[in-house]
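ok trying this again, last paste got cut off
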Amino acid sequence: MDRTKICSLIAAALVLSSCSRGPVIVVGSKNFSEQLILGEIIAQHLEKTMHANVVRKLDLGGTLLAHQAIVKGEIDIYPEYTGTALTAILKDQPEKDAAKVLDTVRAGYKQWGLEWMPPLGFNNTFALSIRKEDALERNVKTLSEAAAWGSWKLGVGYEFVKRPDGLSGLIQTYRLNCKGSVKTMDLGLLYQALEESQVDMVAGSGTDGLLSAKPFVVLEDDQHYFPPYEAAIVVRSASLQKFPGLRDSLAALSGKISTEKMREMNYQLDGKHRPIKEIANNFTK
């Protein structure tokens, strides 16, 4: 058999293989641990509930790259955060009312033919944490109680100092008294510094994995200073029309991932280095 016929047969086989798979749903994510876990959870959930052919395009990059990918139709679905969409994509000012933020991003994303599903159940906003022993000794559970107790050695990431919803507003809202100058450091060093008593309060993320594994206490933001960053699934309206049952399948994930569960899964990946597929499978099974 000559080379031309062989190539023709291979091409025909590839076409038949592609056709036999049927329509493909493409799931994307951004490029950090929590997003990779969420992307894999969505993909496995669609495979199990819809018996769908799912292609994963995880680890796409940052917010703008993921947004461009879904607008261009390179992906059908990806997880996003309401506060990020509001400020980074729609260029609006931070808003503290979670319902208003969700309504605003839902309305704003219609211009690209995109829909927001109801939130997944957790809020990846900033969180101030202290050692459990200090929380018990000083009897503090909220940021207001912490501010009233006295001064704290505060550690924060570099970005937190400059953000409009960061350090200056926090100190002003709670009249928080910092002991000495605020220590800035890489985010990956915050909890080590807290554990080693280099600082006694840190500003991290509410879903940081170490919060589920170390004796730390997250202080309640009782004056609601930090804006909401509720996680939710963004999906193309065209994809919802193309794939019967997709809306119901995605909606089944809404409200199912608590902040505590997300912390635990983040720790399974970052702290215990378990495979992402295994972490997601344990959630979706």
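PB: full thing came through this time. The chain has two domains: 25-123+229-284, 126-218.
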